[in-house]
Amino acid sequence: MMPITKNGLARIRRQLVLLQEGFMAESFKIDFQPYGKVESGDLIIFVGDDLKPTPAVAKQIGSKAVDLIAKAAAAESFKGKAKSVMTIVVPNGLTVDRLIVIGLGGEKERADVDFVQLGGLISGRTNGKAATAVLDLPGIDVSPEAAADIALGVQMRRYSFDRYKTKKDNGEQKGVTRLTLSVADPAAVKKVYKARESVLQGVTLARDLVNEPPNVLGPQEFAARAQALTKLGVEVEILDDKAMKKLGMGALLGVAQGSVRGGRVAIMRWNGGKASDKPIAFIGKGVVFDTGGISIKPAAGMEDMKGDMAGAACVVGLMHALASRKAKANVVGAIGLVENMPDGNAQRPGDIVTTMSGQTIEIINTDAEGRLVLADVLWYVQDRFKPKFMIDLATLTGAILVALAQEYAGLFSNNDELAERVSAAGKATGERVWRMPIGPEFDKMIESKFADMKNTGGRFGGSSSAAALLQRFVNDTPWAHLDIAGTAMGSPQSEINRGWASGWGVRLLDRLVRDHYEG
């Protein structure tokens, strides 16, 4: 374990300040209150495709307002479709500034409503100083969990990353400064929402890490961000070049050697379960910037390669979420942190590296570097911790975008039960995965004439052959690989993500742990 120096402690304190700034940048407050009359600000209510609010809401707003909704809907061709919104300014019969009517659609749409996305929709349609959303939804049972998810979506929508802008965009709509959610049981919702706040902080941390510029967030600085989790009770070890060389991590070090900024491995441990319980493990690819190395990438769009550490960012965000909500599980998070640069000392196509496992890899393309980093970290985790399972996350291949666009992450696994649980968590959170093939055909693609394997199997089936290489470093441990190249950075804007980095994976994996692995 690398000792923490005085300079290291100072750096950690600076990282904590940055995190606090990120979480506290906006003076926004969200409240949970019982149903009651709303006198001012924005009032948000919901209707189905019949344009009728629930009887309780209709009674609350009065018959004049109900008639006004019908008249305004006819004038504006508002039909109550899912996610449609109609705004009535200074509504007759009410003292509020605006009446915002959100459509929920028909019976089918209401059965499949995504409460987190609905929260984002609410957040994006409000302005002014205060708003109240009455969470009495026609045809939908809003449980405390559902209400807490709506609040989570509200907060996720509000995220922005403008730390380096000297002039803030005053024209950008940030929404209200106070939002009240009217619910049936405020106390129950508040209790559930405490855990959602932990998840929110984890997502925010992951987003911040991915958004940071690469000159600010190198391997050492990233390791310091992981080290900051000690404040939450997470045990953190940092392996430097010397420690990794002693362990024989030749694949990871081969990638790192082209940069003047040395590599790091951060190992985070949250011990919230029984001492006798095997841990569960999450591993992240942390290439803080990827030029492609000697096999250099085209210049256009290379700036996006600051996000090639999104897998590591997710793992750090997840560990924050689990520790913050005091998850009853033993969890290991491990991230390999490197910068892939075309220095005179960089590795070359044709080089052969020896991994920690003793297996050798021929370098065909230095831009297929993430699998080299993961190979050593996967082996280290399975060898040292003997976990129940391992899940790795990596922005690993462009090929996964060709297959799944930016709608799903690619899921590869050697264990059907684990794969099914990950898929279910993805469906529940909206962070969807699609299982992809991995087998002997793809394993054959990475056979090498000169080493045990080569680091790329060619253009066809690129995501599967990359996963096949990773599988050689997990032994018999149940394992899943998530290729998040399409979902974690540059992801499409949605109701809950208006920025470049989505923080993808934190909610999915927190849900996986919560549903199946807490005692």
TrEMBL record:
InterPro entries: Leucine_aapep/pepB (IPR011356), Macro_dom-like (IPR043472), Peptidase_M17_C (IPR000819), Peptidase_M17_leu_NH2_pept (IPR023042), Peptidase_M17_N (IPR008283). The active site is at 297, 371. Mn(2+) 1 binds at residues 290, 367, 369. GO terms for molecular function: manganese ion binding; metalloaminopeptidase activity. It is found in: Cytoplasm. Its EC number is 3.4.11.1, 3.4.11.10. Pfam families: Peptidase_M17, Peptidase_M17_N. GO terms for cellular component: cytoplasm. Residues 365-372 form the Cytosol aminopeptidase domain. Mn(2+) 2 binds at residues 285, 290, 308, 369. It is an enzyme of class 3 (hydrolase). The keyword Cytoplasm applies. Its cofactor is Mn(2+). PROSITE patterns: CYTOSOL_AP. GO terms for biological process: proteolysis. Binds 2 manganese ions per subunit. It catalyses: Release of an N-terminal amino acid, preferentially leucine, but not glutamic or aspartic acids; Release of an N-terminal amino acid, Xaa-|-Yaa-, in which Xaa is preferably Leu, but may be other amino acids including Pro although not Arg or Lys, and Yaa may be Pro. Amino acid amides and methyl esters are also readily hydrolyzed, but rates on arylamides are exceedingly low. Presumably involved in the processing and regular turnover of intracellular proteins. Catalyzes the removal of unsubstituted N-terminal amino acids from various peptides. Belongs to the peptidase M17 family. This is Probable cytosol aminopeptidase. The lineage of its organism: Bacteria, Pseudomonadati, Pseudomonadota, Alphaproteobacteria, Hyphomicrobiales.
